[in-house]
Write a structure and sequence with these properties.
Distance between the termini: 73 Å
Number of helices: 19
Strand content: 25-35%
CATH superfamily of the largest domain: P-loop containing nucleotide triphosphate hydrolases
Helix content: 25-40%
Largest sheet: 6 strands, mixed
Oligomer: single chain
Strand order of the largest sheet: 2-3-1-4-5-6
CATH class of the largest domain: Alpha Beta
């Protein structure tokens, strides 16, 4: 594969300051693709052009400058690496210059070049004045140290200088990571005759291959990539930072809209609610709690209700606050994504921010715990964030849940989780090298141990004659924790010899059933009654009447004798002493040896001296124990 660095350059600036003409001068391509754009001489929608320069492939996104088309501009500016800020020498800084500048700042764009277009239309003195105005305008911003290049599209002056500045800026920028999860925000969707649905966008992360199955969000529909194009050429693979057109199979173009996202299948969930840090522009009016605004993120647009998490009634201009935004429709959005806020009416940019949590719970205002949680996420340390997420999820988080919530790669999660487990800040449940492991915070895991031990102790206190609590009942009494967390806690308690597990029963270690004298006597009486009865056992109601304890305790004593295998349950209402069952086995063996293996019901009744009431349940018990096998109306002794 060719070793080419892909860099997206977005133009920004006021209407008619020559953005499209400058892109054409740089690339040889007029980015105005709509007839209306060419007729009116302004860019209404996004235009695209490409420039190959010394191992760097620049994709130019020419965005609209007219105020009415700012929402289209926002669809293009979200994925850019370098902004080419265009200011005409004959007009200097205008209203949309300021709005585009504010948007670039709010989106966290870090690199840019300023082009003074139409420099041939003014005198050198005016050009120097415009330069000074620009330097003052961008002071203390990301453009403060940006190169300022006067150019003329008509004469070609400065165009080569501008190309060299683009090259220098691209070399100073880091390569985008194509090993991340795929995300391609869609800015156009259309049908092409003979091909079907085609979408275009900028790959903001990951890579896209011909033949790959991808998922369309927020609809979650799975589609296949039939073909890829970039820079007017057919390609087999597109990588992060590359302008791409994808021909999609299994879908009609009418099902695709700008704002949707192609992404790695099966790992993400669209969001209708996000927690974020929001900053208002100094020029904006105060934003009131529960105000509704337009939110633009990538190519998506939604109406959001803004709820302040600090309890304040409004956010003052120039200030920042943690908020929860309730969106009117689901969008695919991840922590770290930048967004712009605009008023509902009149449409003007008022601020922007960064997503911190794309899967938050519903928040209460003035929740101090949420503030500290979001401050940790805002700092961006992955290990600290992982601990914060685990502490906010006492039931634990699986590896796929972490990926869905953060967009991180599994290898990065594994690495951080192992470090945190070694420092005993997290507990890893399962195999950290697989996709099935779960994390839980150390305090939450310790709490689960305490809750389970207390549930066991409480059960013993309420049921002194029972040896232990069934696992399923214990799971419910412990608050129904995640199954893998429950099993891991039981395993820890077992290893520390705090509990003993026998089959399905859990009991406190070292505990023995201590019977009172009355209960011990009742146990002896029950055993004597059944031992004496042989196979002609009495009903339990008859036995209960002779006991010195009430019915409830007598039932539990019966359960003790059954667990100790002194008594054997043959049917729900039929219990025999283990000696009687042993004698019956010996009787059958003798019968088989002397008279053969076949045994009728009548012969069984005669052999044992029992009535049909006992004979049928006994024979069915012998079948279950594989001592006999039913053949027609007879049994074969095995």
């Amino acid at each position: 594969m060719e070793d080419v660095k892909h860099v997206i350059v977005g133009t920004a600036g006021h209407i008619d300051h020559g953005k499209s003409a400058l892109v054409e001068a740089l690339t040889g391509t007029n980015p105005d693709r709509l007839e209306e754009e060419k007729r009116r001489g302004i860019t209404i929608d996004l235009g695209f052009a490409f420039l190959n320069l010394e191992g760097i492939r620049f994709g130019f996104v020419d965005v609209p400058g007219h105020e009415k088309f700012v929402r289209n501009m926002l669809a293009g500016v979200g994925g850019i690496d370098v902004v080419l800020f265009v200011i005409a020498a004959d007009e200097s800084i205008k209203p949309q210059t300021r709005e585009h500048f504010d948007i670039c700042c709010l989106l966290g764009i870090s690199r840019g070049i300023i082009a003074i277009t139409k420099s041939d239309k003014v005198s050198p003195d005016v050009l120097d004045t415009v330069r000074l105005e620009i330097e003052e305008f961008v002071r203390n911003s990301f453009l403060e140290s940006a190169p300022i290049v006067p150019v003329s599209v008509r004469s070609g002056a400065g165009i080569e200088d501008l190309k060299q500045e683009l090259r220098r800026s691209a070399n100073a920028d880091r390569w985008r990571d194509d090993k991340q999860h795929l995300r391609l925000p869609i800015d156009r969707a259309f049908a092409m005759k003979g091909f079907g649905a085609v979408v275009t966008g900028t790959l903001v992360a990951g890579a896209l291959n011909v033949g790959a199955e991808v998922q369309l969000y927020p609809t979650r529909k799975r589609v296949r990539v039939r073909g890829l194009h970039s820079d007017g050429k057919q390609i087999e693979r597109a990588v992060a930072g590359q302008r791409t057109a994808a021909n999609l199979a299994r879908i009609d173009s009418s099902e695709i809209k700008r704002g949707m996202v192609l992404a790695t299948p099966g790992i993400f969930e669209p969001s209708s609610r996000v927690d974020a840090a929001v900053t208002l522009l100094p020029s904006a009016h105060p934003l009131k709690n529960r105000a509704r605004v337009h939110m633009h993120q990538g190519t998506a647009e939604a109406v959001a209700e803004v709820v302040f998490l600090d309890g304040h009634a409004e956010l003052a201009a120039g200030h920042t606050s943690f908020v929860q935004m309730k969106l009117d429709k689901p969008v695919l959005i991840l922590p770290g994504d930048r967004f712009i806020l605009r008023q509902l009416s009149p449409m003007a940019t008022i601020g922007g921010g960064r997503v911190l949590d794309a899967r938050p719970a519903r928040r209460r205002r003035n929740d101090h715990g949420v503030k500290s949680f979001l401050e940790i996420i805002e700092r961006g340390n992955q290990e600290e964030t992982l601990v914060a997420l685990a502490e906010a999820s006492p039931r634990g988080l699986t590896s796929p849940e972490i990926v869905s919530r953060t967009g991180w790669m599994k290898d990065d999660i594994h690495f951080s989780a192992k470090n945190l487990a070694q420092s005993q800040r997290l507990r890893i449940i399962g195999d950290a090298a697989s996709s099935d492991f779960t994390i839980v915070s150390a305090p939450a895991f310790a709490e689960s141990l305490t809750v389970i031990r207390k549930a066991v102790d409480d059960f013993h206190g309420a049921n002194p004659l029972l040896p232990g609590i069934p696992k399923q009942e214990l799971h419910g009494r412990a608050g129904k924790p995640r199954a893998e967390l429950f099993e891991a806690a039981l395993d820890d308690l077992l290893k520390s010899r705090a509990i003993v597990i026998s089959g399905d029963l859990v009991q406190r270690a070292g505990r023995e059933i201590a019977l009172s004298p009355e209960e011990a006597r009742a146990k002896e009486l029950i055993e004597e009654e059944f031992a004496t009865a042989g196979l002609m056992v009495p009903s339990f109601a008859v036995v209960l009447a002779k006991l010195p304890v009430e019915s409830r305790r007598a039932q539990k004593i019966l359960q003790i004798l059954l667990r100790e295998k002194v008594l054997v349950k043959v049917a729900d209402d039929l219990v025999f002493h283990q000696l009687a069952v042993k004698n019956l086995r010996e009787t059958l063996a003798k019968y088989c040896k002397e008279r053969g293996a076949r045994l009728s019901i009548g012969a069984f009744k005669e052999l044992t001296g029992v009535s049909r009431k006992y004979a049928i349940p006994l024979l069915e018990y012998l079948d279950r124990e594989h001592l006999t096998r039913r053949v027609g109306d007879e049994r074969v002794i095995l």
